[in-house]
Amino acid sequence: MSKIKKIWTENKVLFVLGIILIICLIVFATVSITYFYGASKDKYGNRLDITKEVPLDSKLYTDIENELKANEKVIKASAKLKGKIVYINVTFSDETKLEDAKLIAETVIKLFNEDELNVYDLEFIIQTENVTDNAGFVALGARNSNGSGSVVWNNTTSVEKDQESSGKKQ
To answer: What count of Cα atoms within 13 Å lies in the side-chain half-sphere of residue 104?
Structure first.
């Protein structure tokens, strides 16, 4: 016991600093874990809380598909929700022009009410059935819930326009 008292009296400062160091490491580890990993188990965190206030009806996806398939130029159509983005995939017949396909795809926007359009983003993926270097198209469009309200399409030029502008019409 006298040896422990002797070590304590000679090294009080080191023992106190060691205890403070251990407490600081525990606090640092706790703060780091809660900050970087958070309490939520959801991979989206709390970003999707607003979707609970304005849920989408499951019938909406079938309505979107039926609305698109009603057009004779549409071969396949699908819609699904992931996070707060509604993905709408449409496959058109090979004779369909790019501009016509964009207009047909945009017709589904009217199926959403104003509250849904203010919460959910829409992502359009349109393509022709056979896409090659010389024919067809693949285009992506997006409508942001916070944006202008219109669909913004990627800068896609159809093969016909490329060939006409370069004078190499085959």
So the answer is: 28
Structure tokens at 47: 């970003």
Assess contact for 38 and 103: CB atoms under 8 A. Answer: no
Map out the domains of the chain as residue ranges. 2-37, 50-165
Parallel/antiparallel/unpaired status of strands 85-92 and 121-128: parallel
Mean pLDDT, contiguous 10-residue spans, the chain (170 residues):
84 92 96 77 75 88 93 93 92 91 92 91 91 81 86 72 53
**Residue 16: phi, psi to the nearest 5?**
-65, -45
Q: pTM higher than 0.70 for the full model? A: no
Query: Which letter, b or e, does each residue of 136-148 get, where b requires 16 or more Cβ atoms within 10 Å of its Cβ?
Result: bbebebebeeeee
Q: How many Å apart are CA 145 and CA 165, to the nearest integer? A: 36
Residues 6+ apart with CB under 8 A from 124: 88, 90, 105, 106, 139, 140, 141, 142, 143, 151, 153
Q: Which CATH code for domain 50-165? A: 3.30.70.2960
C-alpha span between 36 and 38 (Å, rounded): 6
CA terminus-to-terminus distance, the chain: 101
